[in-house]
Amino acid sequence: MTSHFFSPVVQRLVPYIPGEQPKISNLVKLNTNENPYPPSPRVIAAITHAAQQGLQLYPDPESTALRQAIAAHHGLAEKHVFLGNGSDEVLAHAFFAFFQQGRPLLMPDISYSFYKVYCGLYGITAQTVPLADDMHLNVADYAQADSLSVAGVVMANPNAPTGIGLPLADIERLLQMHPHRVVLVDEAYVDFGGQSAVGLIGIYPNLLVVHTLSKSRSLAGLRIGYACAQAPLIEALERVKNSFNSYPLDRLAIAGGVAAFEDQAYFEQTCQAVMDSREGLVLALEDLGFVVLPSQANFVFARHPQQDAAGLAAGLRARGVLVRHFKLPRIDSYLRISVGTLEQCDQFIQALAELLASQP
Ligand SMILES: *Cc1c(COP(=O)(O)O)cnc(C)c1O
């Protein structure tokens, strides 16, 4: 649909399409990389408490308590942390703050598809750099004769939807290749076995690391994301935020987020449980003839040499299991399967085995 009311930018916008959030229950939902475990009970208690007092008042525009909790978790000062309503909002502000330069922004050809959507929103040209045939990222491909000819670099580490992680030494090489451009490393999945670049912030003024509480902290429903960087990058993000929405985090999110960081033991247990499930899931998929990329995330990316992935996704859905299929070049033979509980993974594998047995 279009209308003469649309501005030229809106006429051209190609929005992100999130994975299905089904209205029916008792599906095995392995399509949007949520955590299969609920948040820590302490989070629920904190939100309940926060709901009982002060909702008539605006929240702290600086979300100071949560910024302190996050800073303490990473061993950083508070001024190195920026918060947003989900990391998608943090990413959007970062694209606006750093990449609107009239130069192309480097990113892998296969990556989080929202990056290109932000480019469309803010008039940024995306320059995609192909991953190798085995889906690994080769940092040398990001070298430029003149680094100032690009707006910066954005990538997810571990990458999405491949799940493949990049060693920290490679991130450092990227930072050194582009010393006068922001290198944005989206670590949405880093807590499931990746190497975090947060420890490099003190060394590299061009590094912006983005995290979310949606995956490893089981809080996709609360919408909390954050960025860590040296003070000037944080200041730029604050300027954008305070020109857009002074209160991106509500009182419940601030309280719940603080409690999530107070329960380190729960965080470690649930991350470990997801990694343990992942190991079993990979083996079971391989037994069924799938080729599975090495994953450091809470999902696996797998293809079957003889089966059509879209058909498998549809067949699984008919059997009550949701997985994600991307109808995109290079990856349309793959399925992305979020790692569920052991029981959910068993249900998925059983449905998949039945489906394969019923195929010609
Ligand atoms: C899930 C995801 C996000 C978005 O996280 P929210 O905090 O829920 O907005 C960002 N980047 C990547 C790579 C993701 O997979």
Q: Could you explain how this protein is built, in words?
A:
With 360 residues, the chain is α/β, with parallel strands linked by helices. It has two domains: 8-38 and 265-358, Aspartate Aminotransferase, domain 1 (Alpha-Beta Complex); 41-264, Aspartate Aminotransferase, domain 2 (3-Layer(aba) Sandwich), CATH 3.40.640. Helices cover 37% and strands 13% of the residues. It contains eleven helices and twelve strands. Strands 2-8-7-6-5-3-4 form a seven-stranded mixed β-sheet, sandwiched between helices. A three-stranded antiparallel β-sheet has the order 9-10-12. A two-stranded parallel sheet has the order 1-11. The chain starts with 7 loop residues before the first helix and ends with a helix. The model has no long low-confidence stretch (mean pLDDT 96). The structure holds pyridoxal-5'-phosphate (PLP). Pyridoxal-5'-phosphate binds next to helix 4.
Question: What is the topological layout?
Answer:
Elements: H1 8-12, E1 28-29, H2 41-51, H3 64-74, E2 81-84, H4 87-99, E3 105-108, H5 114-122, E4 126-129, E5 152-156, H6 168-177, E6 182-186, E7 207-212, E8 225-228, H7 231-241, H8 251-262, H9 264-287, E9 291-292, E10 299-303, H10 309-318, E11 321-322, E12 334-338, H11 342-358
Residues 33, 86-88, 112, 156, 160, 186, 188, 212, 214, 220, 225 line the site of pyridoxal-5'-phosphate.
